[in-house]
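Repro:
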Amino acid sequence: MQEPKIRFTNVTKIFKTHRQIITAVEKANLEIHEGDFVSLIGPSGCGKSTIIRMLNDITKPTSGEIYVDGEMIPQKKKISSKQIRKMGFIFQQPNLLPWMTVRQNVSLPLKVFGLKDEKWEKNVDKLLEMVGLKEYEDAYPSEISSGMIQKIGVIRAMVHDPEILLMDEPFGALDEMTREQLDIELLDIWSRTKKTIVFITHNVEEAILMASKVYVMGTNPGRIVAEVEIDLERPRRLDMITETKFIEYEKKLTSLIGEIDLSKIK
């Protein structure tokens, strides 16, 4: 059987403060294979963001093991440049540098990784064209829409050609229409690039629409409570949300999550 692209084995993360000990994640086990689109979903405080921050080595697990391509992420020292190059991180707020143009913002990771060949500049061109922003490459963040800014956040994480995209509620702050449009565009990017994607969301519909598998997390302590395979045809379409099978998945996931802020479900 093929080795998972990403594997967590009994991973626990405990944060200690002066007043309390918080178990952000307890004994998490998950497997994500190459080319998978996987969603993590659950209420606030369940450890979703901690999961991908441990994967990207922003924070270290307290115990357990994390593997990428069968190689364990070191527990006592920094992640290797080879491993970190495999990943691109997309935050809810792209935090573009306002004094840089669209192209300069997209190109930032190339400077970080010291990638100077002409092929990387061509990759910037290709990504800008892929999301329809080539004509805006000389614009500044203040001159473009919020939807465009989110697209820049996505392709900036892809510019060094990572194998894995880690997405922490990338479209959560957008209005519903813009979010749905970007969901479909992201699915198109995924179908063309075959990246492995780990996608965090509060939104049940979004998780079902995007993912092939959904990990449901619970709180107190943060933990994985269920793994649900999403067996819907691809390419996915927005009108699927009214289909019986889609609604059944929505009911199942909502039930597994339990009490959650209903305003974040729709």
